[in-house]
Write a structure and sequence with these properties.
Blueprint (H helix, E strand, L loop, with lengths): L15 E5 L10 H13 L8 E5 L3 H16 L5 E5 L2 H9 L1
Parallel strand pairs: 1-2, 2-3
Length: 97
């Protein structure tokens, strides 16, 4: 799995973000992938300090993997807060609160 994230080309940034992973298959994601994604996110966290990221996902496996990411981010004191939701409406309400 390859993941490309480019924040450098953005002219403006938002502190809150919704990842719509509803139809995603995360079955190949490993713990190493989660740590690498978190490393990239942390490198750019200054752009979103105090922000929130909501993951919207279906299925137990995907939900569990994104919850692992949420926990890893917390352990590593990531400055952006992460939450995982099964409902897009719940995710949006949290982001707007």
């Amino acid at each position: 799995m390859k993941i490309f994230i480019s924040l450098d080309s953005c002219s403006s940034h938002t502190v809150n973000l919704l990842w719509d992973l509803f139809k995603s298959d995360l079955s190949d994601i490993t713990s190493d992938h989660l740590h690498r994604i978190l490393s990239v996110a942390k490198d750019h966290a200054y752009l979103r300090k105090g922000g929130k990221t909501a993951f919207f996902i279906s299925g137990s496996l995907g939900y569990g993997i994104t919850r692992m990411y949420e926990n890893i981010a917390g352990v590593h004191n990531h400055p952006v807060v992460f939450r995982v939701f099964r409902s897009k409406d719940e995710a949006m309400k949290w982001l707007e609160s």
